Amino acid sequence: MSESLPGAALLPPAGPVPGAALHAIDKAKAEAHARLIEQMRRILGEDICKAFEDPKVVEILLNDNGEVLVERHGEGITPLTTMPAAKALNLLGLMASYRETVVDRAHPIVEGAMPPEFLLARFAGCIPPLTPAPTFAIRLPARSIFTVEDYVSRGILTDAQYEKITTAIRDRKNIVVSGGTGSGKTTLLNACSDYVARISGLDQRIVIIEDTREIQCNAPNVVQMLTDPDSGIDMTRLLKLTLRYRPDRIFVGEVRDRSALALLKAWGTGHPGGLATLHANDAEGALTRLDQLCQEAGVPSQRHLIEEAVDVVVQIARDPNHPAGRRITEIRFFD
């Protein structure tokens, strides 16, 4: 008679996990998530939590002096509340836990999308020694669409500029919205995206690629993709995947790395009518910036490809003297 090892009878049987056990695992995960959300809400406090519910809020910022600022559409940046360093550190720790990473001296940066309960807002934060005290910036997704007609009514776009942009959209030109930090690039791209949605039917398939969800598009045939750094899925990989999805138009939230090369190739090979944003100070600088980003992929200058793929650059800038706080400074066609 064969002998069994001590304790062998205690081992679970081989095979699939029983349904009851799976339910218990799911329940435990849901409870842990609920506790994390409650802790986050408690740390953020009433004022910041209310800011997440305000459709005008676009950014929540914590400075190293503990002051929390909020930026609202058309209202600029104003003080909101304060947050002690200890609470801020706890918040970064919870975000690191949610992102399945850690935050400590060896890993002082936490970034990524927040939980759905916080609108999948884009979170970026760091701790000492990078800053004297914990800091963060939270970018909220658009909750309301500022249409191109709204830009005209508020004097940001002239009637002539409106005609140029809407004609370019109808003619399926590839448009880059360029500007500095906080100039309103994504808001303007969303206005263009809204116009695309209004003129598109099921025959127009739109694929949107972003790091965090910011682009709104209510067209009837849309696929939205997000990068996943944890899985090594970057924008370049998604752009290559996008070509298998039969896109008619390709929108990119922000071009900031070597993925510029893949985007330009996609735009220039039978997928016109795209939209993208880019950090640059003027239209010519936008083309130079695109070229620099392409070269990050280890290729020589792609100026010829850029001239083939990019049809229009719309430059937007902050303007404290304008009632809306920003204005369109240039619309450059490269046909």
From TrEMBL:
Residues 133-318 form the Bacterial type II secretion system protein E domain. Gene3D superfamilies: 3.30.450.90, P-loop containing nucleotide triphosphate hydrolases. It holds the Pfam family T2SSE. GO terms for cellular component: cytoplasm. It comes from the Bacteria. One of its GO terms (molecular function) is ATP hydrolysis activity. NCBIfam families: TrbB_P. Belongs to the GSP E family. This is Conjugative transfer protein TrbB. It comes from Acidithiobacillus caldus (strain ATCC 51756 / DSM 8584 / KU).
